[in-house]
Fold this protein.
Amino acid sequence: MPTLKSRINISLPDEVKETLEKLAKRDRIPEATKAARLLEIAIETEEDLFWNEIAEERDKKQAKFISHASAWK
């Protein structure tokens, strides 16, 4: 049955493959499902780091704050 999801081929080091197998077995899900979920988590983490970097640049002493109402006008 065809799927609407995109597929990719990746090469994994043996150690990573073994760990993925163990995690998938532990969670009783297919390896591909576990790999996809771990990729989602990694991407979310990278995104969080990116936004945190921007927030830290903006977080300065003597910063001027505006009200929520003013910000959303």
